[in-house]
Amino acid sequence: MFAFALACSAATLLLTVVVGLRYGPRGAVPAAVALGLQALLAIGAYRLAGPWTPAAWYFQATVYAMVISLARAQPQPRGWRLVVSWPAAWFVVGSFLALPWAVTGVTLGAWVPFALAALGVLWSLTARQETVTIDLSAPTPSELGRIPQMIRRRRGLSRPGHAGLRVVQISDPHLGAFMSEARLRRICARAVAAQPDLILLTGDYFTRETHADAAMLTRALGPLRAHPHVYACRGNHDLECPDAVAEGLAGAGVRLLIDESTTVTTRAGRVQIVGMDFHWRDRPRSMRGVLVDLVRPHDGLRIVLLHDPGAFRHLPDGAADLVLSGHTHGGHVGLVSLGLDWTAVRALAGLPDHGAWGQRDNRMYVHRANGHYGFPLRIGVPAEESVLELVRHQVLRDRV
Q: What is the pTM for the complete model shown?
């Protein structure tokens, strides 16, 4: 165990220096914290490995290899993802979940956290296909809160025939280890095949390993060229590579709305689409500035694209018929797969995590995201691939 701990310490120090040389102190400090914490978790997991200690060396090596690939900021081939990226994510999450066993030294059931992490790999590589009916006349609370009666879910992507507006939302694809170019192309192809009135993208298209490759985003979104009404806003990670985002979206025929709006005529009537940019500071003023002179179309809907649902509370009263958000990846870790609403994002940060929310006269739908980023895996919160059917004055008896 001493040799393993020594190797982890040396690798952490070396990689911190490598990241610092490439990204400066602002990159080195978080790298040192993240790598140091992960090394401690790995050492704790090593204590539980028993006859599997040689495998622990391999999986810990994949973690460092993945960090190197991220520092290079280059997309990796499928073979690399199979032998490095996915095993590394599995080992990081399994080690984190095994902390109670590592602290107590109990070996009974030590396989459970790693089995749960293996399920996390499956949750991260697949999506739940759903049709979501959204009642725009559902009553809203005076303070920010969930509106379970506002939506009804059913499995599968519906086909045309719905009388109201049909929308496909694509959110947080995060091209990278768990969202390949081919996988995103398939998602976009199914979006077009569903024949919605609108396809709306709500930000965060890259991860660090892909954000210099605008052509990759263009190829991945290529099927969207076949649809006449595709619009997008930016998310927080898009500000890391704004030129690549703009070029990649434009190449796929997607119109990027940065604090601006457009009005389109659809089969279901006129729709005004407002794309809110991601602002780190002074969000209320920025959002009011976009809406102040904006005239709502007569007998039409206004849909606001707002990447971060945390900014929803700053929206002026009655400013939108529906806000579409992402960002939280559905809560990332939770019990949604068991039919329960609890997620770590809402418990720890208090943010709207998934589903329908309202405040005064505004309503919001938070997409669980097509991909993910940050915490290495989804746990108990499946990705979402859905068709949204917008209706008015309809009582939805089924709950989320």
A: 0.93
